[in-house]
Amino acid sequence: MKLLAIVGTRPEAIKTLPVVREARRRGVPIVLVSTGQHREMIRPLFELFGCPPDHDLDLMQPNQSLGSLTARALTALGEVLAAEAPGAVLVQGDTTTAFAGALAAFYARIPVAHVEAGLRTGDLAHPFPEEFNRRAIDQFARWLFPPTASAAEAIAAEGLPAPGDPLARVLVTGNTGIDALRFAAETVRLDPPRGEALDRARTHKTAGGRLVLVTGHRRENFGAPLENVCRGLREVADARPDLILLYPVHLNPNVRGPVGELLGGHPRILLAPPMDYLPFVSAMTLADVIVTDSGGVQEEAPALGVPVLVTRERTERPEAVAAGGARLVGSDRARLVRELGELLDHRAIREAMARARSPYGDGQAAARVVGCLLGDSVEPFAG
Question: Of the residues 169, 219, 234, 335, which is catalytic?
Answer without folding.
Answer: 219
